[in-house]
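Researcher: Next entry in the queue.
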Amino acid sequence: MSQQRIRSGEALPSPAPTRARMAWCRAWLCRGLCAALAITTAWAETEDPPSDESPATAGGPPGDRLIFMQLSYLPSTLLRADFKGADGSVRMYNQDISGALVFFLPNRARLNLALSRDRHSFRFRGNEEVEGLLETAYATRVLAAYFGDLNENWSTVALTSVRTDVESGVSRSDGRMYSGQVLVQRDVGENFQLGVGVLASSRLDTGNLVIPTGMVSWAITDRLRVRTMRGLHLLYKLDEARHWEWGLNAEYHSRYIRLGDAGPAPGGVYRSRAVITTTSLMYRPNPGVTMGFEVGVVPWRELDIRERRGARVWQQRIEPGLSAAALATITF
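Model: Structure for this entry, 332 residues:
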C-alpha cells in the first residue's frame, strides 16, 4: 500500500483469498472466539459487573442508607506492539475517570446513574504512512441501569446509554452512539446463575447492531468462582477475610472513533478490535475501597479505517503485545 493511497483516502480492494486452508481455519477459529467473548461481554459494555463486596452494588441497602456515590480511575496501556507483515508499531495509553450515583428502591431494586470520561492516546511509529495517523481521542458516556427482582428466582437488568467517541477537535455530536440492553437472570440453586438477553446498539461504521447476550455465574467453592460478565473470568479469594482476589480473564474489546477531516478518511471511522487475556490482583481493605492491577497479553488485535460511506482505506493486524492496567474505586 502506497503512502499516496492511504493519505488520499482511496478505497483498497479486498485481498484475494490466497491463504492455505490452515490459515483459513485459524481465521475462523479466531472469529468464533471473538464472537463468544463478544456475546458474554456485550451486556456489560455499558457498566462494570456488580461486586459482591461493594455496598453500592449489593442486593439491598446496608443499614438505612439509600444513596451511594462511587468514583473510579482506570489507567491502562498497550506496550509497543509491531505491525504484522509490515514496518511500523503502535502504543496506546488510556485514562478513564467515572462517577456513579446508586439509588436503592423498594423491593430490592436499584437504579444506577453514571458518567465517564475517557482519554485515549496513540503513538504510531516506524512508517511514514502511519505517522500521526491518530493521536488523541476522547469518549464520554452517560448510563442509566435498573436492577430488579421479578420473583424469588428471577431478576432483570435493563441498561441504556449514550456514548460519544471522537478524535480530538471533532464535535461530539459526530461520534454519538446509543445502546440498550435487557438481561433476565435465574438463580439455579444457591451458587449458580444463568442469564440471557439482547443488546441493540448503533455504530459509527455499519449502522445498527442487534445480538443476543448471555451470562453465567458459578460459585464453585466459597473462594473459587467463574463468571462470564465482561468476558470470561476465573476468580479466587486468597484469604479468609476476602480482602485479596486473584483472577484469570479473557475479554473481547471493540472501539469506534469518529475521525477528523485531516486524515486519510475525512470524517471516517477508526475501528479497533482485540482479544485481551490478563491476570489480575485486587485488594479490598473494606467494602468501600477497591484497588488492583492487571498485566496480560493481547494475542489478537486488528485496526482499520473506513470512509464515512464504509469503504476501507487502511487495515493492519498487530503482533501479540503486552498490556497493563490499574484500578482504584471508592464508594461513599
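Model: The chain has a mean pLDDT of 84.
Researcher: Noted, moving on.
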